[in-house]
Design brief:
Blueprint lengths: L29 H6 L2 H30 L5 E11 L14 H19 L8 E11 L2 E11 L4 H15 L13 E8 L14 E5 L6 E4 L13 E7 L4 E11 L8 E5 L9 E5 L2 E2 L5 E4 L4 E7 L8 E10 L6 E4 L2 E4 L12 E7 L5 E10 L12 E4 L2 E3 L2 E2 L2 E4 L4 E7 L8 E9 L8 E3 L5 E3 L25 E3 L5 E3 L25 E3 L5 E3 L25 E2 L6 E2 L5 E2 L47 E6 L4 E7 L4 E4 L18 E5 L12 E10 L13 E5 L26 E6 L14 E8 L1 H7 L8 E5 L15 E5 L5 E9 L10 E5 L4 H8 L2
Parallel strand pairs: 5-7, 15-17
Antiparallel strand pairs: 1-3, 1-4, 2-3, 6-14, 7-13, 8-11, 8-12, 8-14, 9-10, 9-13, 16-24, 17-23, 18-21, 18-22, 18-24, 19-20, 19-23, 25-26, 27-28, 29-30, 31-33, 32-33, 34-35, 34-37, 35-36, 36-39, 37-38, 38-39, 40-41, 40-43, 41-42, 42-45, 43-44, 44-45
């Protein structure tokens, strides 16, 4: 690299152009001085003044370069530029080749001229270094080093960032004649995230082989954890006119991204604007992520801190032909999706689909999956689908868009950074006069069964099936115009949306009336939780005292004192003076990170790591259970009742599968364990299913893993409020007369008020039971799920065992919610018999 005379190189500190020898006149020779003529004297004085000035200048220069305290700081930037008048050749991949060195020198000179021509950069510029080239025509990746006084650093950052804008598109005054530059992107390098260009340790160059899948792993994987303070990078290349697909098949890093993380760039320069994703934590194989580049290069970096080293990752990569155009004209009906779906969409994609149907019909597009980058802080969509003159981004549930012609244009755009799963949609014709034949047409374009209109449930998703309804005699007329089942009136849940179903309720003797008319249990007054919804239950409470008199509804600390705070156990805050509410909290966590796509029925691997499959002899999965410690499971008593000569009560006939995801698929994650002992609740009532709970002791303790974890047990005072959303899981029947599941299923259900449930199920619901489900039917546990968990995810993400699948009137029937054993009632019983 050449350095111009004006650049400041802090290592050299050389002084140029200063005369080393100079003769001074002897100032002490009086006689000679007196003999001088006035003209000569003037000249002499002039010379002396000149010499003094010169010495002063020299002194200043010496001070400037030698002694002045230099407080400049080093600033690194990285970026790339696209050169349109050069051709990429394979030689340019090798930084030792002559071709590389020659072009690098030209680019470095160009960059130097450019930056030295900028007033805001020139005083601080030190050097530019080209680190790599890639195809397109030629993209040069480079580093820029500057030294700047701290007070000028922000200004320099801005000036350098502005070069991205000023150079792209047109030639810059500083750009040399030999290079034509179409695009330049440059930004500050975060020293924490970027490997210094000269550091070649833990640096790998990979090239995709056509038709083959390549792999690479973090150092030591899978035999040992990744090293501390690792600073690794993988440069991956594909052939020209190809893109790269990168699939992290195993990903297991520390869960704090600040400490250990992987960043993938759509560039060979680690710049934020080209960051496809940043990841840490653990991802199960069911939620592995596939990333796509926009060109034939990708950069993967791994940074780790000095402690907590995890197994690391294994990644597969391959090249795919670049989809040149995702522009299509489609007729009739069909599917469209973001490029490379279900892999993440590539950065900088632009697609246009023209969808055409028969002339008498209009176009209807149904998006089944929609997961794009969220809008930015100014609510602008950076990645979007443009349809019906709207730009849509973020995460959406199933969504329908109706056109008003027989042709519709759908566009997709992604910017240069942060990719997501994308979208998958189908299009079809619809008759504008009959948009939903034999169905109800919702305002949002959806079609729902006719009998769902005015049934008290928001089936459309926009409430349009529940407005303008004549309420039937068994329905309540809400202030909002909606009709709701009388069952929901005064049940403590705001079903109408305006609380009108909860106002004017007679409160029971052990209840208090909120300012908004709602009734809540008296014990919930002053418990620091706003159950009323208008805070009236938390007003006028004395702030001073945390402890209260003990009742059935208060949490009792180990020291015997009771506290106001509701559900304080393992919530991450110490409420008891002795800290006992935060002890024994190694439970209810899911080491794997799971996808945000909900609504799917198949669980993901490790999503419910306490779920157990109980197999009876050769019958296969017969019941479910939950892990509560390394050697105890909890299940339903009715699973272990002898029946027609079959000894279900014999522990020797049962086998427990822990960490199982798919029945009969025994991966190395699955632990198969015998049962040593079955403890059925002594007051289990087989007629009523009252006290339907049992404890199972495993023959040997198990080791917890990413797919085997204990669930938290709720304290006796733990409240799962009406309306709260919980999850039920199991391999039971997928419908009342349907087959059992092979992949673990999950369903989101809501807690229903016991009194409402008791009315619906003919007074069979005791105080030891919880009801949950949907009165509209359709979502429920079923035969074979019994004994399995109803999991409640609390605010801090910890999961508690709210219930055990117990019984129901059929499965998923309308107005027949499922019934669950209320686990909080058995907290003491569990400890008594298992020590957990
Ligand atoms: C059963 O037979 C069963 N709908 C479990 C739960 C439900 C119904 C039946 C709830 O094990």
């Amino acid at each position: 690299m050449r350095n111009s005379g004006l650049t400041y190189d802090p290592k050299k500190d050389e002084i140029n152009g200063i005369p080393e020898e100079m003769e001074f006149l002897p100032a002490s020779n009086q006689k000679k001085l007196e003999k001088r003529s006035p003209k000569e004297r003037m000249l002499l004085v002039g010379l002396i003044i000149g010499a003094a000035l010169l010495s002063l200048m020299i002194g200043l220069l010496v001070w400037h370069f030698h002694f002045r305290p230099d407080n400049r700081i080093k600033k690194m930037y990285n970026g790339y530029l696209t050169i349109t008048n050069k051709q990429f050749t394979e030689k340019l991949e090798d930084s030792e080749s002559e071709a590389f060195k020659q072009l690098a020198a030209t680019v470095e000179e160009t960059l130097q001229n450019t930056y030295m021509g900028m007033d805001a950069v020139a005083p601080y510029y030190v050097r530019s270094t080209v680190s790599a080239f890639s195809e397109g025509s030629v993209i040069a990746y480079y580093w820029l080093e500057c030294w700047v006084p701290p007070e000028n650093a922000a200004e320099l950052d801005a000036a350098i960032r502005a070069t991205s804008l000023s150079i792209s598109g047109r030639s810059h005054p500083g750009v040399s004649k030999s290079l034509r530059i179409a695009e330049l992107v440059v930004d500050r390098a975060d020293p924490q995230r970027v490997k210094p260009p000269k550091d070649k340790s833990c640096s790998f160059d990979l090239h995709a082989v056509p038709g083959k899948v390549g792999t690479f792993t973090s150092p030591g994987f899978p035999n040992s954890p990744y090293p501390s303070n690792a600073w690794c990078q993988w440069v991956i290349r594909a052939d020209p006119q190809h893109i790269l697909e990168l699939n992290f098949v195993t990903f297991d890093l520390e869960n704090i991204c600040h400490n250990d993380f992987v960043v993938v760039y759509d560039s060979l320069s680690p710049i934020e604007q080209r960051e496809i994703t940043e990841r840490c934590g653990m991802y199960p194989p069911t939620n592995a992520f596939k990333l796509i580049s926009s060109r034939n290069v990708m950069l993967v970096t791994l940074m780790t801190d000095d402690d907590e080293n995890y197994p690391g990752f294994k990644a597969e990569f391959r090249q795919l032909p670049k989809i040149k155009e995702c522009n299509e004209v489609l007729e009739g009906s069909g599917n469209i999706s973001s490029p490379y779906y279900p892999a993440y969409y590539p950065p900088r994609a632009n697609c246009t689909w023209i969808l055409r149907v028969a002339p008498s019909k209009h176009v209807k597009v149904t998006f089944n999956v929609f997961l794009l980058q969220n809008p930015d802080k100014d609510n602008i969509c950076r990645d979007y689908v443009e349809i019906n003159n709207k730009k849509i981004c973020g995460e959406k549930p199933k969504m329908v868009e109706l056109g008003n012609k027989n042709e519709m244009t759908v566009k997709f755009h992604s910017d240069g950074a942060e990719s997501f799963r994308g979208f998958s949609a189908m299009f079809e014709p619809y008759d504008p006069s009959k948009p939903c034949p034999k169905k109800f047409a919702c305002n949002n374009g959806r079609c729902v069964q006719l009998d769902l209109k005015c049934d008290g449930w928001n089936d459309c998703g926009d409430n349009s099936d529940e407005i303008n309804c004549e309420c039937s005699s068994d329905q309540f007329h809400c202030g909002t115009g909606l009709c709701k089942s009388m069952f929901w009136v005064c049940d403590g849940v705001n079903d109408c949306g305006d609380n009108s179903d909860e106002a004017n309720c007679e409160c029971a003797v052990d209840e208090m009336k909120c300012m908004n008319g709602k009734c809540i249990p008296e014990v919930q007054r002053c418990n620091l939780v706003d159950e009323c919804g208008d805070r009236s239950d938390e007003q006028g409470c004395s702030e001073a005292e945390n402890t209260v008199a003990c009742t059935d509804y208060t949490y009792k600390c180990r020291d015997g004192s009771c506290i106001k705070k509701k559900n304080p156990e393992c919530d991450g805050t110490r409420h008891c003076a002795d800290g006992s509410d935060e002890q024994n909290c190694d439970c209810g966590t899911r080491p794997y990170k799971h996808s945000r796509i909900v609504g799917g029925m198949d669980a993901e691997i490790g999503e419910w790591p306490w779920q157990v499959s109980l197999h009876f002899k050769k019958l296969g999965s017969t019941c479910g259970a939950s892990v509560i410690s390394n050697n105890w499971l909890v299940s339903a008593a009715h699973c272990f009742q002898d029946f027609q000569g079959t000894r279900y009560s014999d522990p020797g006939h049962w086998v427990a599968y822990l960490g199982l995801h798919v029945q009969h698929k025994l991966s190395d994650r699955v632990v198969k364990e015998n049962i040593k002992r079955i403890i059925v609740h002594e007051k289990y009532n087989p007629q009523m299913f009252d006290n339907d709970i049992a404890l199972l002791e495993l023959a040997h303790p198990v080791t917890f893993t990413s797919v085997i974890q204990p669930i938290c047990l709720p304290d006796a005072s733990h409240d799962f409020p009406v309306g709260k959303s919980t999850w039920v899981t199991g391999w039971g029947k997928t419908s009342e007369s349907g087959p059992v599941a092979t992949v673990l299923q999950k369903a989101e259900i809501r807690i229903i008020k016991r009194k409402v449930c008791d009315n619906l199920l003919s007074s069979a619901v005791t105080s030891h039971m919880l009801c949950a489900g949907y009165l509209s039917g359709g979502i429920d546990a079923c035969q074979g799920d019994s004994g399995g968990p109803m999991s409640s995810v609390e605010e801090n993400g910890k999961v508690f065992l709210a219930g055990i699948v117990s019984w129901g009137d059929g499965c998923a029937r309308k107005n027949k919610p499922g019934v669950y054993t209320k686990v909080s009632n058995y907290r003491q019983w569990i400890t008594q018999h298992s020590g957990v």
